[in-house]
Design a protein that fits this description.
Elements (H helix, E strand, L loop, with lengths): L3 E4 L2 E4 L1 E3 L4 E7 L6 E4 L2 H21 L18 H13 L4 H16 L1
Antiparallel strand pairs: 1-2, 2-4, 3-4, 4-5
Helix pairs in contact: 2-3
Length: about 110
């Protein structure tokens, strides 16, 4: 079972409240709060899609650019020694540190799937 759903490039969480007997979630990776819920999987997905569509319509109405989730840029804080070792490894492979980190993350993610 996945704990996320996607639509038009947006990723939403999927959670369940046993107390309320309802599925719910929110769009991840953006500052705007977009939430949705449903009593079953089908209604959850429909409400997720409707919430995204409404958000995009509101942005258009307000002449505001919709937020884009996961733009491909993020800051990573690591210990200085690991940073140094990563730079040395990247240089040894004749690639940039960005490319080195991207490949490392790609390999780790692929191993998890």
């Amino acid at each position: 079972m996945k704990n996320t759903i996607t639509y038009k490039g947006y990723v939403g969480s999927v959670e369940f409240s046993e107390e309320d007997n309802v599925f719910f979630g929110k769009v991840m990776g953006i500052r705007s709060l977009i939430s949705y819920e449903g009593t079953n999987g089908k209604s959850l997905v429909k409400n997720f899609h409707d919430s995204i569509d409404e958000y995009l319509k509101d942005c258009e109405k307000l002449k505001k650019e919709p937020e884009v989730a996961y733009k491909g840029t993020f800051n990573v804080r690591i210990k200085p020694e690991l940073h140094k070792q990563a730079v040395i490894c990247a240089m040894a492979q004749n690639v940039s540190l960005n490319n080195f980190v991207e490949e490392a993350v790609r390999a780790f993610v692929a191993a998890q799937q």
